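Pipeline run #58 for the internal structure catalog. This entry was flagged by the ingest filter as a single-chain record with no existing model, so it goes straight to prediction. Upstream metadata was stripped on purpose; only the residue string is passed forward. Reviewer on rotation: M.T. Logging verbosity set to normal.
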Amino acid sequence: MKAAFYEQTGPAEQVLVVGEVPDPQPAPGEVRVRLQWSGLNPSDVKARSGARGPMMPFPRVIPHSDGMGIIDAVGAGVDPARSGERVWLWNAAWGRAFGTAAEAVCLPEQQAVSLPANVPDEVGACLGIPALTALHAVLTDGGVAGQRVLVAGGAGAVGHYAVQFSRLLGARQVITTVSSAAKAALALAAGADVAINYRTESVVDRVSQETQGEGVDRVIEMDIAANAAIDIEVVRLNGQWVVYGSGAKQFTLPFFPMISRNFGVRFFIVYHLSDADRRRAVETLTDFLRRDLLQHNIGMKLPLASIAEAHAAVESGAVTGNVVLSIR
């Protein structure tokens, strides 16, 4: 089968190769999915570039954890009726050598989730990391019903979903930060009450104005290293940060300003959700998808042969929204 892979870390155009590899066969408890779309995320770029360390976890890596396709074979112990099922995937490349940048992938059957018939194929490649990260950030610790929420980066792949989930799950007010008028329009259309351009105005002052000086109950943060100083100022007493990303490996936080606000800080990575948390997120997401309640922002579609170009686009931050590769 055709697949994209790398055998050393480094620049996308130097290390990514598209070639032939053997067809995978499902082990007991696994399904094989004939892939139609592969979703690319910043974590895939970091792993390939060596940003997480230059050592290869496996001699050869087929990247990308997110994808969409059709189950065409099942291993022992899997209901044969799943063959032919249209599915989306999560964690395909997490701790594994074989991700979705290929014509087929085998993985545990619970990692292949039925995709409602009304959802476009390519959207299925945007759900495993972007949508589930956003949904867990909104659902965790009692959820956001009745809360004021600040979503950092409301036009980004995760933030765009987080704005929508906050609105759908009962937030009292949804505020987000953006870097342009076009991104503000995208976030407002997704359900944000307020979109603050952090390049042209003070986020702290605007949040104070919009919340009548009370601050927000929850900050959903994509880059704590860059935004911690703002987050300290905008979160209310006994509020919460929910953090899923950082632009720097190390950062410092001031003790007294934080403890004086008495707020909580939750860090999480979507790859390590508990079974119960993932089940809750998947069930909630499936309900929203079936009811056609979500907007999906796919910023770039390319063929698998252009995987290096796709990686470069994500690495540069040039694309607003999700990046997906067509496998067909």
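catalog note: The chain has two domains: 2-120+296-326, 130-271.
catalog note: The radius of gyration is 20 Å.
status: ready for reviewer M.T.
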